[in-house]
Amino acid sequence: MSSENRQIGQAIPINAGDIPVLVATEIPHEIRHGAIIGAFQSLRPGNSMVLVAPHNPLPLLDQLREVADLDVSYLQSGPVEWRLQLTKP
């Protein structure tokens, strides 16, 4: 599915498990952290989402940890993009 045909923040299936993928750069900067935090909070315990970011999102992870427990696995660490699997325990 090309980005032209995809709604902003729409889940992109990345494997047979259809883990939702959120591409940070497709969310307006002014609401980006809030939208990502809201998406994570909507997950059921035991479920995951993949975040694609243009940099290592350490400030965002700090904000997430303030409001929720999460497990973070780096799937890709740069140099162009970072992919993190965020899991709600």
**Mind describing the biggest β-sheet?**
4 strands, mixed
Strand order of the largest sheet: 1-2-4-3
Categorize the overall geometry.
Answer: globular
So how many helices?
2
* C-alpha Rg (nearest Å): 12 Å
Overall SS class = alpha+beta
**How far apart are the termini?**
30 Å
InterPro entries: DUF2249
Pfam families: DUF2249 (PF10006)
Domain DUF2249: 24-88
SSE layout and pairings?
Layout: E1 21-23, H1 32-41, E2 48-53, H2 58-67, E3 71-77, E4 82-87
Parallel strand pairs: 1-2
Antiparallel strand pairs: 2-4, 3-4
How would you summarize what this structure contains?
The chain is α+β, with helices and mostly antiparallel strands and 89 residues long.
What structural keywords apply?
disordered N terminus, 25% strand, 22% helix, single chain, alpha+beta, 2 helices, 89 residues
Q: What does this 3D model show about the protein?
A:
The protein has 89 residues and is α+β, with helices and mostly antiparallel strands. The chain has a domain at 45-89. It has helices at 32-41, 58-67; strands spanning 21-23, 48-53, 71-77, 82-87. It has a 4-stranded mixed β-sheet with strand order 1-2-4-3, with no helix packed on it. The longest helix has 10 residues, at 32-41. The termini are far apart. Residues 1-16 have low confidence and may be disordered.
